[in-house]
Amino acid sequence: MVLSSANKPREFRVVFSDPTRTFYSSGDKVSGSVRLEASAPCRLTRLRVTAAGCARVESRRRSQEVEYLKYEDEVRLDPVLNTDSDGYFLLPAGKSFCFQFGFELPPPGRLVSSFKGKFGSVRYYVRAELQRPSQHALQCEREFEVEEPLDVNRPDLLAPAAASRQKKLTCLFIPDGQVSVSAQIDRKGFCEGEDININAKFENTCSRIVVPKAAIVARHSYSVNGTAKILRQKLTAVRGNAIMSGMCDMWQGRSLRVPKVKPTLLGCDIIKVDYALMVYLHIPGSEKLVLELPLVIGTIPFSGVGSRTSSMSSRDSAPSGPPSYSNIHQDLRADGPRMPLLYDYDGMGLFIRVPEGCYPAPPAYSEVDEDAIHSQQVF
């Protein structure tokens, strides 16, 4: 029998049973076949199929890996292929052969979702190795995605998140008032395409014009031998109206839509992917005043059931609020002048000369426990 000079199949590839499937999860079965076809007869010794999944981080000649999946199986060739006098399997020319494989993914809690970042990745693949007599083995592989379900309807993710911060300012070492931010969201868990409704209050008693903003930020953390490298990225943002000196502004349900992003990465030992809602004030000539509220981006969308319960219990337990200010413009007075005057621009921002004066006290209202709003350390 005349053998191919290269003894190499024309077709050698891995094919999944359902090529349209976009991802697998814990407990799912991954199945498919290894396809072989030769243009001239080839001799083979064995066919081995392996599957692997691991997280890998690389940084400055150092690397670290953590394994999450390992599968090996030797595919039997004898039921399909004949052997020659030397005991090698013969792959005839012009005919396609499919050798099946299949395995089950580990149960929940043992897998990590697929991910690809700047310094590391979580990758899953099926590899076929075809061994031939007196020649190097041939290899081919096919990647597959793993996405572990993350339900944003969990009780801990339906709980609201709130924080507040303030900052005293100086101008040429002279006290220049302060600014403050308080913000709250109804829940911590969201999915792609959902709107985050932001309730916030911004106060400005300094002499500068400040601008309130909010943004969704992603944080990627890569660890190699105990040393972490952290990358932050602003994904999408919203901007409010400028706040003059002595004024304040309130956001009531200001929405910010979650963009198309990878879900929060849980359970990986060396790669972490998490998100936060950053609410902040841009202050000319000074560092921003920033607070962050934790976000978890999931895969199972909000059902709408837990939110009503959470909102009702929140209203029942919260102290009574101030009287209605619905007839007052949203730029509210905050211990400052009625009409701030533009004073100077020195390359650091706009500054205001604040004339002396006072105004009647606002209507009385019951006290609100400010301790209910916890301040949060900014990353």
UniProtKB/TrEMBL annotation:
Work out whether the entry's keyword set contains Oxidoreductase. Answer: no
User: SUPFAM superfamilies, alphabetically?
Assistant: E set domains (SSF81296)
Molecular function in Gene Ontology: ubiquitin protein ligase binding
Q: Which UniProt keywords apply?
A: Cell cycle, Cytoplasm, Disulfide bond, Isopeptide bond, Phosphoprotein, Transcription, Transcription regulation, Ubl conjugation
Single GO BP term: nervous system development
User: Where does it reside?
Assistant: Cytoplasm
Q: Which residues form a coiled coil?
A: none
**Gene Ontology terms, cellular component aspect?**
cytoplasm
Under SMART domains, the record lists: Arrestin_C
Q: What is its main location?
A: cytoplasm
Segments of this protein annotated with the region Disordered: 305-330
Q: How does it assemble?
A: Homodimer; disulfide-linked. Interacts with TXN/thioredoxin through its redox-active site. Interacts with transcriptional repressors ZBTB16, ZBTB32 and HDAC1. Interacts with DDIT4.
Record-stated family:
Belongs to the arrestin family.
Q: What does this protein do?
A: May act as an oxidative stress mediator by inhibiting thioredoxin activity or by limiting its bioavailability. Interacts with COPS5 and restores COPS5-induced suppression of CDKN1B stability, blocking the COPS5-mediated translocation of CDKN1B from the nucleus to the cytoplasm. Functions as a transcriptional repressor, possibly by acting as a bridge molecule between transcription factors and corepressor complexes, and over-expression will induce G0/G1 cell cycle arrest. Required for the maturation of natural killer cells. Acts as a suppressor of tumor cell growth.
PANTHER family with a match to the protein in the record: ARRESTIN DOMAIN CONTAINING PROTEIN, THIOREDOXIN-INTERACTING PROTEIN
What is this protein identified as? Answer: Thioredoxin-interacting protein
Species of origin reads Xiphophorus maculatus
